Amino acid sequence: MDTSHTPMSIGVVARRVGVAIDTIRYYEREGLLPEPQRRASGYRSYDDGVVRQLRFIRRAKDLGFTLEEIRDLLALSADRKRGVKAVKQRAQDRLAAIDERIAELTRVRNGLEQLIEACPGHGSPEQCPILRALAEPEERA
């Protein structure tokens, strides 16, 4: 069954994309999706373009892009002159941010691992290196 030109309800769109109805409404309010056509009954009516756009948004979110960045990517996707170059730059920026976050999490993990190794797992709470590290004032650089 070809639904490319068949108007769809918000529930049908939500099921096709795998998002909640409230998510679609939220994206509309945030300007990530165009205002939908309305049927005579007042119900929203969507086409496949919105399904494609929702999939784009969902996949971009899965890659860690913020809604503001996704708004920018959507605008760039229609820009024939600078779109691809700018999208690549946004993806490189996102990758750099992810790499920074991974490095930060690795430092946190290593610090926690050292505290766990230093903790005997018994004795008084005052002697626990984990509790001492959590209670110590922060060092200023």
UniProtKB/TrEMBL annotation:
Pfam assignment, any one: MerR_1
| Source organism (scientific name) | Dyella solisilvae
Which SMART domains does the UniProt record give?
HTH_MERR
Which keywords does the record carry? Coiled coil, DNA-binding, Transcription, Transcription regulation
What sections of the sequence does the record tag as coiled-coil?
88-115
Write one Gene Ontology MF term: DNA binding
Top-rank taxon of the source lineage equals: Bacteria
> What protein does this entry describe?
Heavy metal-responsive transcriptional regulator
Keyword Mitochondrion attached: no
PROSITE patterns associated with the record: HTH_MERR_1, HTH_MERR_2
Q: Which InterPro entries match?
A: DNA-bd_dom_put_sf (IPR009061), MerR-type_HTH_dom (IPR000551), MerR_fam (IPR047057)
Keyword DNA-binding appears in the UniProt entry: yes
Annotated HTH merR-type domain ranges read: 7-76
